[in-house]
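Input/output pair, single chain:
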Amino acid sequence: MELKKITIDGYKNVVNTTIDFYDITSILSLNNYGKSNLLSAIVFGLSFMQNPTKIKQQMMNDIKCIPLLKVGSDSFSFKIEVDTQINNNMYSVEYMYSFKWGVPNKYFGEILSECLKIKSEGGFNRYIIRENGEAYYRTSLSGRCSKKIAIDKNELVLCKIKAYDDLFYLEIVKQLLENLNAYVDRHFDSSSGYNLTFMSEKELEDLTLKPALNIPKTLYNIKKKNHDKFELIKNVFISMFPSIQDIIVKENIMNIGSQLKMETEDGLVLFSEKTYSLYQKNKNLKSIINFSALSDGAKRILLLLTFIVVANINGYSLICIEEPENSIHPKLLRSFLYSISELAGHTKLLFTSHSPYLINYMDPWKIYLGMPNDIGMAQFKKIKDGTNATKRLLNDVENYNMLLGEYLFDLMSGSEDDLEDLISYVE
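Output:
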C-alpha cells in the first residue's frame, strides 16, 4: 500500500492542510510555526483509525490535541489517499473520517462522518458512507452503498466491517487498518548510536524501528538477514565520502565467564556476551579505525541511511524527520537527498526544516511552505506544479541572485508585499 496524500484539519493549530507525498517531500516554515504539530497530526490520524474503541474515546477528548485557536474548526478531519495492488489488480483508495472534539466537563467527543471510496478500472465508487448519525456500507460488487449498519459514536465503520469475513473488499479494509504506519523522529541524535552496548538476548535479533538504534548491531543484522541492503547502505555512504573504501562491522564475544542477568518488572533479563563494533577503511590511513572517529556529520548520515533501510524492511508507509540537514555539510545535501530516495523504496520521506539549505536541492513542487499569518494558524501550501509556474519562481530566484531556499525563507519572514509574492507561488 503506497501513500499518496493526506489532508488534515482541526489538530492543535493545524488547519486545512493537504500534503502530496513524493519520494521526498519537504516542509519549510519559520520557527515555532507548527511543523511539529503537523507531523503529530499525521501520526494521530493514522493511530485513531487503528486503535480500539476505548482508545479512540480517549483520543477524541485529549486536551493536548484539541484546537485552541479563536478561529477554526472544533472538529478533527482526516483523509488519506493510497494506491494498492491486490491479486495483480491496482486500486486507488480514498478514506476519510471526522469527529467532534470533546470539551472537558461538558461533553465527550464523537465521530461525525466517514467515507470510503475505491477505484479500480472505472471511476470511484463509495463503499462506506456515514453522516447525520446514520451509516451504510456496500455488500456486493454490483450493488450500491446502501446496507445500513448500527454503529457506536466512538466506533469507525471501517473497523467494524473488518470482522465481516465475506466482504469482497475486506483485503483493502485490512490494509488500511494494518499496513499504514508513520514514524516521526525529532532528533536523530547520533551521539549514542555508535556506543559499545551490552544487549539482552532478545535485542540481538531486533530490527524494529526505534529512536535508540544501535548502528553497529543493526548493520550487522541487516548484513546477515538482508545482505543486499547492507551493500546498498555501504555503497551509498562510500559514494558520499570517496576517501572511505569500506565499512566493516564485527561481532565480538566478551567471554566474561557467566552471563549477566537483571531482574525487571517483566522478569529476568539475560544479557548477551555479544557486542558489535563498526570500522572504516580509509585510503589515507594505514589501518582500519573505529567509525566513532568520524565527524558528527558522517555518523549522522550513516544513522539516517540505516534508519531508512530499517523502515523499508519493516514496511513503513512514511518516515518523518525534523531538520535532517543538521550536522551535514551543505555540499553533501544534494547527494544525500538522491541517495536516501534510492534507499527508501515505497516508504515516503517527509522532512521539515527552518533552514534554506536543504530546500536548495529539492524540486520546487515537492516543497510545502508554512504560510505566515498573525492568528497562530499553521497552514501549509504546496508550490505550484507546472512548467510555467516553476520557471517563473526560478527566474525570480535568479534575478535576486539568491538560492531557492534563501529566497523562500526571506519571503516568509518579510513584509506584506513579500507575503503577496509568496502567495503567488503556491496552490
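The chain has a mean pLDDT of 89. The chain is about 30% helix and 30% strand.
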